[in-house]
Amino acid sequence: MEQNDINIRQLTTEVMEALAHTIDAKDKYTNGHSERVAIYSKMIARRLGLPQKDQDKAYYMGLLHDIGKIGIPNEIINKTSKLTDDEFELMQSHPILGYNILKEIKSMPELAQGARWHHEFYNGKGYPDGKRGDELPLLVRIVSVADSYDAMTSNRSYRKYLPQETARAEIEKSSGIQFDPEIAKCMIEIIDLDTTYSLHE
């Protein structure tokens, strides 16, 4: 790889990481979420044996999956009490907002897919489009598991991060329902290798 190509790749990564930091700065309770989702997504992709280019795409998708939250008011994102129905509906609009931001990036359409579909369920019960199974690209299914794992293992306004065994049990229970069974199995293997529980906020 020529030096110019290396420099462009490094710049691309740094710009995406800077955007991820901007997104996460809106939420004082889960700062660093996007970067952790990116790291976990790449770990899963590597363990699944995907080529380096797909591992990198999984990382970038993880970084920008929540970019739509830029359009959600801070008072909703940081609200410590239960959201009203209207607030919950607005929060659920962030995948579409993210898709609309990223859809013009034609060189990596996976970014927009990750933003739009990271809350879809393997059984079709997620949102916003109700896609299911193989209708969802493999990398999106990876980001979905990584995102949910970090949500459980991050501190929130109403609780400390969950114990490792609780997060593991939830991934196992949701296999085939919320998560692709193969990817859930892979995440469980990663959890089981993390004997010191370092993979949390």
Give the structure's gist in a few sentences.
The chain is mostly helical. Helix content is 58%, strand content 0%. The protein is built from ten helices and no strands.
Beta-strand content estimate: under 5%
* Helix run count: 10
The end-to-end distance, rounded to whole angstroms, is 35 Å
- Mean pLDDT across residues: 94
* Assigned CATH architecture: Orthogonal Bundle
Number of structurally distinct domains: 1
**What about the largest sheet?**
none
| Cα-atom radius of gyration | 16 Å
Number of E strands: 0
Helix share bin: 55-70%
H/E element order: HHHHHHHHHH
CATH class: Mainly Alpha
State the shape: globular
- Give the low-pLDDT segments: none
Within CATH, the superfamily carries the name Hypothetical protein af1432
Q: Give the helix/strand class.
A: mainly alpha
CATH topology name: Hypothetical protein af1432
What do you see in this structure?
By secondary structure, the protein is an all-alpha fold. The chain has one domain (3-193): Orthogonal Bundle (Hypothetical protein af1432), CATH 1.10.3210. Helices cover 58% and strands 0% of the residues. It has helices at residues 3-24, 33-47, 52-64, 74-77, 85-91, 94-102, 110-117, 138-152, 164-173, 181-193. It starts with a helix and ends in an 8-residue tail after the last helix. The model has no long low-confidence stretch (mean pLDDT 94).
